[in-house]
Design goal:
Length: 413
């Protein structure tokens, strides 16, 4: 038995990082755009906790304000004016002219589960139609393809063992191809049993905007509740994410990850006329009213507002993508891989030539080689930037990209 891999903490593959020598990297500290491991090695962090750390690690303004906020206590008997202020600020900043009802959660998986329950109360139907990753709860995960890969590489349907939510009268359906014809045939067969259509906003990066708009319009013909999941994008692309400002496109909006700068907070916003369904769905638990994460979110919001942050993040992301793509040009491998600036640069995604996706070990090799050279960057999943990434020097980045991609090309050829 291999005892080295055993740990008391269950760590899924997505939270384990190995270099090309198969050495697991154990991180112990973060500062600005960097994380440090237990061997005192420094890495540029473009994972950022899978998105939350929007200001950068250990931001001193954030830290000081959070310390002050501890004096109010971190969990009071019920919701507080801080919770109210937070919602009002989001609405004011987004300038949307509708009112919403909100449910505070810790994770987006919970919020999406809540949205499914609300949708069932509203429609009397139990089926779910998904497009994109929306969390780990059974209905979100059972029978999922690899949602973060381009549509043509999403063949594998996985994760049914031990999960529910796939029985005949509670169908969970995937719109995998992002082709309207597939959606129409799903709706024609099952539309009368589908309560909600959940779309991860990241899926907008694979298609023209009007494809998603058409999809939403078709779903509306079947009285299906539209849930836009802005977990990866809220507080990053804009306060309401990529599409949240377009209030005609959603009934329920999910925010998460970056809104708390690492504190666990997620929000379900539903249109005002969902008040009764949302109340009656009885979603929420002990920690829903917890205050510390809301203080963190208020502080994050203030720092973002005063630093022109959304534009700055795009600038930073674009400059990283530019460095990467200049290196692939130098190495004459633009056909094989390129970095995409998603939603103006707020997210980054390396996309590969089709044949590379057929051999996932080639994808993961690149991630390992990045680590050898001091960079934490995801493959097969978008990566993230923080405001502190403006400290990075183009030459350093290009050097890391150059060494990593050169080794990668040597190994895969
Ligand atoms: C679009 C989307 N929805 C939901 C989730 C689940 O969020 P959480 O991990 O907070 O439960 C994720 C997580 O990555 C996500 O990207």
């Amino acid at each position: 038995m291999n005892t080295i891999d055993k740990s008391r903490i269950i760590k899924r593959r997505v939270v384990r990082y190995f270099n090309s020598q198969n050495e697991e990297i154990i991180f112990i500290k973060g500062n600005g755009p960097f994380v440090f491991d237990n061997q005192k090695r420094k890495y540029i962090d473009c994972v950022l906790g899978y998105g939350p750390v929007i200001l950068g690690h250990s931001n001193s303004i954030f830290n000081n304000k959070v310390s002050e906020s501890l004096n109010t206590g971190i969990h009071l008997p019920s919701f507080t004016p801080y919770h109210e202020n937070y919602i009002s600020n989001i609405l004011n900043e987004s300038k949307i002219d509708i009112d919403v009802v909100s449910v505070f959660m810790k994770t987006s998986s919970e919020a999406v589960t809540g949205a499914i329950r609300i949708s069932t109360l509203k429609t009397g139907k139990k089926g779910v139609l998904r497009c994109g990753f929306s969390g780990w709860h059974d209905v979100q995960h059972a029978n999922s393809p690899s949602w973060h890969l381009p549509p043509q590489h999403r063949k594998a349907i996985r994760n049914t063992e031990g999960l529910r939510g796939v029985s005949n009268d509670e169908k969970v359906l995937n719109w995998v191809s992002l082709e309207i014809e597939e959606l129409k045939s799903i709706l024609n067969l099952h539309g009368d049993k589908i309560a909600c259509f959940i779309i991860d906003a990241f899926q907008w990066s694979f298609v023209d905007k009007d494809v998603m708009e058409k999809a939403i319009a078709y779903c509306r013909e079947f009285d299906i509740v539209i849930v836009i999941d802005e977990t990866k994008t809220a507080g990053r692309v804009s306060p309401l994410g990529h599409i949240g400002n377009e209030v005609n496109l959603w009934d329920i909006l999910i925010l998460g990850k970056a809104i708390g700068n690492g504190a666990p907070l997620s929000l379900l916003l539903a249109k005002e006329d969902y008040y009764d369904y949302t109340l009656n769905s009885q979603i929420g638990g002990t920690h829903s009213k917890e205050l510390l994460s809301v203080q963190c979110a208020l502080i994050t919001q203030e720092i973002m507002q005063t630093s022109n942050a959304y534009a700055e993040l795009k600038k930073i992301g674009n400059s990283i993508a530019k460095s990467f793509n200049s290196v692939t040009e130098k190495l004459n491998c633009t056909e094989l891989l390129s970095m995409h600036s998603i939603f103006g640069g707020s997210l980054l995604d390396i996309r590969f030539k089709d044949q590379i996706y057929n051999d996932p070990s080639k994808l993961f090799l690149l991630q390992r080689l990045f680590l050898d050279n001091g960079l934490l960057f995801l493959v097969g999943h978008p990566s993230f930037v923080s405001l502190s990434h403006n400290q990075l020097k183009t030459n350093d980045l290009e050097d890391i990209f150059y060494k990593s991609i050169l080794s990668w090309l040597n190994e895969i050829n």
